[in-house]
Structure formats: C-alpha cells, structure tokens
Design a protein that fits this description.
By secondary structure, the chain is an all-alpha fold. It contains 17 helices and no strands.
C-alpha cells in the first residue's frame, strides 16, 4: 500500500488529485488480481474435493470384494476376488471408450445447484467426447467412473460361485459402457428428460436422485435380478443332486464372517464419499453445510437399517423357535440397505427422516430376502433386496420427505416438495412423487430391455454358467496359490484314482465318470477324517446344527 502511494506521488508530484486517481487505479488492478487468485483457489479446492470424494468412493471396490469373498465358500474365494477386480477393470475400459460420452458427451455435465431458465431439448444419449477426445475435466470423469464401477460390481455378488469369468468381463463393459450411462444421462445430465434443473422439467419438477439410489443401485440391482434368474441357483441351494426340491433351502454359509464385517465397514466408509461427493463443491460455507448434512444423513440411514433389520430377525426367530437368534448377516445387509435408501435424498432430507428411511429400508431388506427364497432365486450376497428393493424405496422416499429448506439450498427452488411436507402446508403436491415414479420405472424398464436379451444371449452361447464339474469341486480349481494348489492336487488325485482324469474328460461320459470319482473320493476322505469325538459342527444359538 505504501509503495503504491509513493509511486503515484513521484509520478504526480504537483497534482494531488492525479496522485489519488493513480492510487485508485492501482488498487483496482490489485483487487482484480486478488479476485482472480481467490477464484483460482476456490476452483482448486473444488477439484480437490471431488477427487478426494472419488478416491474414498473407490474404496468401496475393496469393500465389495471383501464382502463377497466372505459370503462364498472357501473353494470359490479366489475366483470371486478376481471377478470383483475385473468388474472395475471392465468398467474403466467401457466408461472410457463409450460410457462417459453417452452420459455427458457434449453437455455441461451435472447441474443441480442452479435454475435453468432456457428450454433444453432432451436427448437420449450424449454424442461427443468418445475416448475423452476434446474433454479435459478429468476429475469429473473419474468421479463418474466410480459410479459406473459401483453399479457394475453390484451384480458380481449375486452371481457368485457359478458363473464364468468371460461373462463377468462382458457384462461389466456392457453395463458401464451403455446401460448405466444412458440412465445417468437421463437423470443427471442437463440434457436428460428426467433432469431436475431443466427449464422443461418433467411434471414441472424433474426426478431428484441426488447420489444414485435409482441411477446406480436400482440399475445394478435389476441387472443382478435378471442375471440370477437366467443363470439359475447354485447346485444344492434349492434342489438335491437328483433335482428334487428341498423342503428347506440350503443356506450355503460363507466361509468368513470376518471378511463380511470388514467389507461392510469399508463400504460404509466409502459411502461417505459417495454421498458428500454429490455436492460437487465445497469452496463456500453453503456448500460445506450441505456436505456436512450428507455425512449425518448417511450415518443415520446406515444405523437405522442395521438396527431395524436385526430387530425383525430377532423377533421372527423368537416366534419361530422360541429363542432369540442374532444373525450378523441381517445386521450387515440391513446397514447396506439403509445406505442405499438414503443415497437418493442425502442432501435434501432432514436427519430425523434419514433415520426413518433407513429403518424402513432394513424392514424392506428382510421382506425382499424372504421373497427371493420363496421364489427360489439364488443371490449369494443378497444384493437384490439390498440394492434393487431399497434403490426403489430410496427414490420414492425423496418424493415423500424432501424438505423445502434443503431443496432451496441444493437446487435453489422448493416449488414442489416432499408429499408429507406438502400435506403439512395444506395441499397435495404430488409432482415430485410423479416424476420420481416415472423415473424409477424408466430405470427398471431400460435395464430389463437391454440386459435381459444380453444375459439371454450369454446363456445361449454357453458363456454364462460355469462347468458343472468345476462348480462342484470349486471354481478356484484353475487358480494358482498354496490353498488352490492343495485343492487341485486333492481333486486330481481322486480323479486319477477313479480312472477318468479330468484332463481327459472331454466327452460327456468321461466327464461324468471324472465327476463321480472326484466326489466319491472326497466324500470318503472327509468321512475318514471325521469322528464323533472330533467332528466340528456349527450350531446356532437355538441349538440347531446346520
């Protein structure tokens, strides 16, 4: 400041007014430069925020892998881990080549924090930036890729222990390269017909799905349901070896509850990035407050889902057996159900509503899981009731509980609020509910329209279901590693003893002989090792062995 005054006084020694004008001009230039630096710093903070949230979200891939590995039997662990890993790899390739262009190519990306006054012509998909040509906002690309990878890996657990590796890689590219991008374009892109920020919004409201209960989880959950039905259940899950229906389905317990708990906690941690990242910015106090709300609602949704699911399970076992049985799987999947349900409205609902939505999600998980067993749909990790059922519930919940104050802070309008708030205002404004119902029906219908024939084709070509023999002896048979080598040596020993080695079992009759020899030999070995004094039996808290 003193330097500026001295320079101006030296330049205008005889005219005080000129000197003051010089000082004013210099100060104006300095302030303009300072504003530019502040804007640049704010942009840097926002980019760091979205990258930080995205990296936290990517940890969910580790969570899915650990959870799925814990839910399968020991003989399929390596296969399950590799398939989860390939999900992320296939999603990266598919989203880079085509997915991002279909979702946001040629548009301004997501706009949820400002009102658009002009009319926008809705498009089915984006048409530019394939292979990221002409696009350099790499932080936004990575953020959206993690969403695509999450939708893709949801399917992996539902198909565990019985599907081929090739099928995993192909569906991951299909889902991330086309199906998810079209859904994301419709809901999140400014040119999507369901977008809530457009001038020509659907039902004057548009669909509100802040972080993807419908876009990510319902899409992945519906794909998992289609694939599970076409693929069929695991051998021994609902039928015995002769094809007769079992009176009570075989639970097929996973080999490690520790991995399941670890996976759930990693997913919960990653969900904070999932939901706070939906704010996109944090360079102002208003955005920071919205992100802080997302952390609170995410926490309460998870807690409510876990507690309600455990409570229902305890009450049900008490009525059924007379004793309370605490099932940790119900706690873990209830927690994930609450997280899925809260995702759609994480920044537009109040904390008390988050707890209520999560609690209802835990109940819906129990109902959905029971329906799968009733209709004999095999889902190794219960991905369908967690992601599909509660993805739908999360979208509907936004239309019921969206707060006027929170809507103003996020999308800067509250002309159409949650139905319950509308009732409180003495009206029945169902515009948001109608838009969200249409949106979720579009998501489910689009997933069915493309993934049903896709998995049907994989099944027809013989690329979907694993070989029956490998399914019985374990899909880790082809993997390297100490445990897998011991397992393979045991299998090869029994197959050679039977006189029909596996590597010669090309014809149907030879393969059947090899299968019979392996199974018989392994059963005899297990019986010889077991004795009444040393046999270890897993017993539930009700005293029933399983």
């Amino acid at each position: 400041m003193e330097n500026i005054f001295e320079e101006c006084r030296i330049e205008n020694p005889d005219d005080g007014f000129d000197a003051l004008e010089c000082v004013s001009n210099c100060m104006r230039g300095a302030m303009a430069g300072l504003d530019s630096k502040v804007d640049s710093l704010a942009d840097g903070v926002d980019v760091f925020f979205i990258l930080f949230a995205s990296v936290i979200m990517f940890i969910m891939q580790a969570g899915f892998s650990m959870f799925c590995a814990g839910c399968v039997r020991r003989k399929n662990v390596l296969n399950t881990l590799l398939k989860n890993f390939l999900d992320a790899c296939g999603a990266a390739v598919g989203f880079f080549c085509f997915g991002f262009a279909f979702a946001y190519g040629g548009t301004n990306g997501i706009i949820l924090n400002e009102e658009i006054d002009i009319e926008h012509k809705a498009t089915f998909v984006g048409s530019e930036n394939f292979f990221l040509v002409g696009y350099d906002d790499y932080a936004f690309w990575f953020y959206q890729f993690v969403f695509a990878a999450t939708a893709t890996t949801i399917v992996a657990g539902a198909l565990a222990e019985r599907s081929q590796m090739l099928a995993y890689f192909l569906y991951s590219m299909m889902l991330s390269g086309f199906v998810f991008p079209v859904v994301a374009h419709s809901v999140w892109s400014i040119d999507g017909f369901l977008n809530a920020s457009k001038g020509n919004r659907l039902f004057q409201s548009g669909m509100i799905d802040i972080a993807g209960s419908g876009v990510v989880h319902a899409t992945g959950g519906m794909t998992a349901l289609i694939a599970a039905i076409i693929l069929g259940p695991r051998r021994g899950r609902f039928h015995d070896e002769h094809g007769r229906t079992l009176p009570t389905p075989n639970r097929m317990e996973g080999h490690s509850y520790s991995l399941q708990v670890l996976g759930t906690l990693l997913l919960w941690f990653g969900w904070y990035g999932f939901n706070i990242g939906s704010v996109h910015f944090t360079s102002t106090s208003e955005y920071a407050q919205v992100a802080s709300l997302a952390v609170v609602t995410t926490t309460l949704g998870a807690a409510g889902g876990a507690i309600s699911s455990l409570a229902i399970s305890a009450v049900w076992t008490r009525r059924k057996t007379g004793e309370v049985e605490l099932d940790i799987r119900c706690v873990l999947n209830g927690c994930l159900s609450g997280l899925v349900a809260i995702t759609a409205g994480t920044t537009v609902i109040e904390p008390w509503a988050a707890l209520l939505i999560g609690s209802i999600a835990g109940m819906l998980y129990q109902l959905g899981s029971g329906m799968l067993i009733r209709y004999r749909v095999d889902d190794a990790v219960d991905a369908i009731p967690v992601h599909l059922v509660n993805g739908v519930w999360g979208v509907i919940a936004v239309a019921l509980f969206a707060s006027p104050e929170r809507l103003e802070s996020v999308i800067q309008r509250s002309d159409h609020v949650g139905l319950f708030y509308s009732w409180g205002q003495g009206s029945f404004d169902a515009h948001l509910l109608a838009a969200n119902v249409v949106g979720i029906l579009f998501i489910l219908g689009f997933a069915i329209a493309f993934m049903l024939p896709f998995f049907g084709l994989l099944h027809y070509m013989g690329w979907l279901r694993a070989d029956p023999l490998e399914e019985i002896i374990g899909l880790d048979f082809r993997f390297s590693g100490q445990d897998s080598n011991e397992h393979r040596s045991k299998i090869l020993h029994h197959s050679k003893t039977s006189g029909a080695p596996l590597h010669h079992a090309a014809k149907k009759e030879a393969r059947k002989a090899a299968y019979d020899g392996v199974v018989t030999g392994m059963e005899e070995e297990d019986r010889s090792k077991a004795s009444p004094a040393t046999e270890v039996t897993t017993v539930s808290s009700t005293g029933h062995a399983y």
